[in-house]
Amino acid sequence: MPRKLILDVDTGTDDAVAIMFAALHPGLDLLGVTTVRGNVDVEATTDNTLRVLDWIGHAEIGVFKGLARPVARAGLPGQRHYRRGGTMDPHGGALPIPEPSSTHRDTGAIEFLVETLRAATEKITLVPVGPLSNIATALAVDPSLTEAVDEIVIMGGGHAVGNVTASAEFNVWADPEAAALVLSAGFERLTLVPLDATHQALIGQDTCDALEKLGTPAGTAAARFIGKRIAAYDEITGGGTAPVHDVVCTAYLVAPEIITTTHLPVEVDTVSPLTIGRTVVDTRPQSTAERNAHVAFGADAAMLVKLLLATFGA
């Protein structure tokens, strides 16, 4: 029976690949997609999400527009690690596929999350791959929503790797108070997929070429999106590869062995100007702190490529 999930996204290039995977894989039942400000503003993340679902022929999947700002701040804590629209920007504004003909639902993201989880007769998986503003706000409305969730799989954070600052990953840094609330909410299982793992699942141009040759809408779009990421990361690393962070989370839902995790205590710094947004992962064997997250430290790039080609080629 397909696994039911809700994706929460700030759709740029990597979110787009994750959305296509969740919508197309036969082992997954995508109930809806909620959008939030992050890679781009919420109007653009919503438009990009609609573009993706229209492009792959799944406009029937509801898109629900969410929060346009962090839950406890007037704006983002600081400056991004690349200039929007520059060659080092792996997202840009509008995705390079046609404008959508569909529109987002009248129901907002928070209302959709609360109503869907309250009405659930079987447990649902939450997969937030952007800032956690929507999820935190839904939990503030009703903390018992955690009881309707079998697992929350979060793309965010970093232990030895940061991107927006020397110590923080963007999704957590963009709304650290929201991330702190979600990590302490008491989910039955919380899996955190940080940069430490996603930077091990790098994809190169040879995979983009193989995706393009599939001749499917998803293959074509994935080749464009990942190619843009490779070009941007090549400006930084010169390696000819790029991480596609968010799709690692959706791939994990059908192939848990794609990542290796350790059950550890994790907290988010919301105070220090040097380390705000840092996910503080306590790896000490003698720690007595509550182990609240299954943290991924490894990911299998070859397995990810195989899953992408199989799912987008069908």
Rg calculated over all Cα atoms: 18 Å
Portion in strands: 15-25%
Order of helices and strands: EHEHEHEHEHHEHEHHEHEEEEH
The averaged pLDDT comes out at 93
CATH homologous superfamily (4th level) name: Ribonucleoside hydrolase-like
The count of DSSP E runs of length 2 or more, i.e. the number of strands, is 12
**Which CATH architecture would you pick?**
Alpha-Beta Complex
Helix content: 25-40%
The CATH topology name reads Inosine-uridine Nucleoside N-ribohydrolase, Chain A
Distance between the termini: 19 Å
Number of domains: 1
Spatial strand sequence of the major β-sheet = 3-2-1-4-5-6-12-9
Largest sheet: 8 strands, mixed
The unreliable regions are 78-87
In terms of structural class, how would the helical and strand content be classed?
A: alpha/beta
Quick recap of the structure?
By secondary structure, the chain is α/β, with parallel strands linked by helices. The protein has eleven helices and twelve strands. The chain starts with a strand and ends with a helix.
Provide an overview of this structure.
The protein has 314 residues and is an alpha/beta fold. It has a single domain, classed as Ribonucleoside hydrolase-like (Inosine-uridine Nucleoside N-ribohydrolase, Chain A), CATH 3.90.245. Helix content is 36%, strand content 19%. The protein has eleven helices and twelve strands. An eight-stranded mixed β-sheet has the order 3-2-1-4-5-6-12-9, sandwiched between helices. Strand 1, helix 1 and strand 2 form a beta-alpha-beta unit. The two termini are 19 Å apart.
